[in-house]
Amino acid sequence: MATEIIRPTKILLGQPVIPGDKSVSHRALIFGALADGTTEIVNLLSSGDVNSTASCLKQLGVEIKKTGDRFFVKGRGGYSFSQPDGILDCGNSGTTMRLLMGVLAGQNLQATLLGDKSLNKRPMKRVADPLCLMGAHFRLTEDNYAPLTVTGRPLKGITYSLKVASAQIKTAIILAGINALGKTTITGEIHSRDHTERMLQHFGVQIESNEDHVSIEGGQKLKGGFVHVPGDPSTAAFWLGAASLVAGSKVEMENISLNPSRTGFAEALKKMGMSVESQLKIKDPEPMGTVSISGGKLKGIHIEKSDVPSLIDELPLLAVLATQAEGKTVVQGAEELRVKESDRIEAVAQNLRAMGANIEVRPDGFIISGPQKLKGAVLESFHDHRIAMAFSIAGLIAEGETVIRDSECVSISYPAFFETLRDLSR
Question: Which of 174, 281, 375, 426 places its Cα 20 to 30 Å from the Cα of 115?
Answer without folding.
Answer: 174
